Amino acid sequence: MTPQPKRSNPVLAACLEELGWSPKALARKLNKVFGPGTVAESAPYHWRDSARVPRSPLPVMTAYVLSQELGRVVSVGELWQGRAPESPMLIPASGGMELPWTAQGLWKIVEDWVVGGLIDRRRFLAISGSGLSAVVAHYLDGTAGRGIYLSQGMPDTGEASLIEQIETQLPQLQTLDDKHGGARHLGYIGAQFRSIGLLLHEGGYSGAVTARLLRALAEVGQLAGWMAFDATHHGLAQRYFVTALRAAHQVNDLPLCAHVLADLSFQAASRDHPADAITLGEAARRASDAAPAAVRASVLSRLAFAYATAGRYMDFQRSRTLARELIDEPLTGYEPRWMYFLTPNHLDCQAGYALVHLGMVQKHDGITAKGRTLLGQGIDLLQTGAHDRSQETAHQRRALYEGAWLALGNSARGELESACQIGEVAAERLTTVRSPRSADLLRRLATDLRRRQRNPYVRSFLPRLEQALQATNRG
Q1: Among 284, 282, 279, 276, which residue's Cα sits nearest to residue 260?
Q2: Which phi and psi (to 5°) does residue 307 adopt?
Q3: Using an 8 Å Cβ cutoff, are 350 and 304 in contact?
Q4: Residue 84 near residue 53 (C-beta atoms within 8 A)
Q5: Distance between CA 4 and CA 2 in Å, rounded?
Q6: Measured distance CA(383)–CA(352) in Å, rounded
Q7: What pLDDT was estimated at residue 5?
Q8: DSSP 3-state assignment of 89?
Q9: What pairs with residue 365 in β-bridges?
């Protein structure tokens, strides 16, 4: 019998042997759970055979994956013999959410939010590919079925005032994001979400009250997910979105389900995962078939952005045109209150930054003439938007985000004076708007401008931009 080689990390070696995995199989599992590119396929060989400890947070990720597969806890200390660096408790956004699409499954997820509370030290890592599709699979394959709660009237009881108070504050919560960005009040919105979850967890309400609480949980969860996305806490955002989707499902609110799926699609596209974005966006479109026109238009605009990130220009144009036609028609029937933001100009500006993205990709690929044309079209649309609004008006986060895209488009097209002028207005908003998603766009602008410092406008503006961005890091 050939003797087994001595392994420098016998605990890891034993876990892999028990699972029948090679180190490459471990790497592939890590990439499947946490997203492509998490770890090189050769790295776990060094962990097992050369006693190397990977960079944080890979020690925690590896312990989590092995624990899940083995069905028992493999601690970080045990796996790496006390040599792994400390890191927060990291789990994928799907952790604990692989439950049946039933009311009982939702109650378990709500309980997790409630129990976590303000002392929750977990950090949720964004998922993609099969990990992401698994938590929304029933809406991808059409097997979601129906929830058990139906829209019902509200009995005249003492519970009515509580429900009315919760529902009345929903539009006010939305203005916090519009004015200050997702990062500033995310903790407060999360507390509101948990407070509704606590009421559901305690239970004892009639079916009518429970249904309205669930709808409120879904609406606040969607808002919290959007704000976490704007704050670039992508795993946390996915967790909020999936919870909101499940809550909307239980009250059979298909328009809200479609809206949440479209948010997940937009997030995936913004993270450069176009395949996920298209899968989710097309599921949102199917879910929105019977929704009011404004919902269908919003879903189609998000799907158009997904197609743009995948380079599917014709599909982008078709979806964008359909969305614009829907919103141009007189709106009839019930339009959900959470669609308050949708206007023809909002759709135009979404198409604008999609075109800027397409143009930048075309230029990068050497298709210069086509790239300049697309950039010009995107710039023209974004010029009509919110980028130059006074700082005293509402929707400051939108103004910052669109301004950052418009500055990027002008820079990519070589219009450096305009890029600097527009970028300066956008950078000034960073003092009052905490939107790391928008700040990331301005960092891309700064990177682009550093190569152009011979230009006098760039030479004057770039130091101020970098100073503003450094201030956001300190904040």
Answers
A1: 284
A2: -60, -40
A3: yes
A4: yes
A5: 6
A6: 9
A7: 58
A8: strand
A9: none
Confidence tier at 437 by pLDDT (50, 70, 90): very high
Q: How many residues belong to the chain?
A: 475
Rounded CA Rg of the chain: 24
Cβ atoms of residues 298 and 265 within 8 Å: no
Q: What's 90's DSSP letter?
A: E
Beta strands in 111-234 (DSSP E): 122-125
Backbone angles phi, psi at 388, to 5 degrees: -110, 20
CA 260 to the chain's CA centroid: 10
Question: Percent of the chain having pLDDT more than 70?
Answer: 93
Write down the domain spans for the chain.
Answer: 10-87, 103-121+129-141+165-310+341-349, 353-474
285 CA to centre of own chain: 18
Residue 435: how many other CB atoms lie within 10 Å: 28
For residue 306, give both structure tokens: 């997904």
As a whole number of angstroms, the distance between CA 169 and CA 149 comes to: 23
Residue given tokens 């929750």 in the structure block: 120
Q: Cis omega (within 30 of 0) on the bond before 57?
A: yes
Q: What is the pTM of this model?
A: 0.84
Greatest pairwise CA separation for the chain in angstroms: 80
Element (H, E) at 446: helix 436-449
Q: Name, in order, each residue with C-beta under 8 angstroms of 463's C-beta and a sequence gap of 6 or more.
A: none
Determine the Cα–Cα distance for residues 99 and 114; give it in Å rounded to an integer.
17
DSSP state of 221: H
* Class of CATH domain 353-474: mainly alpha
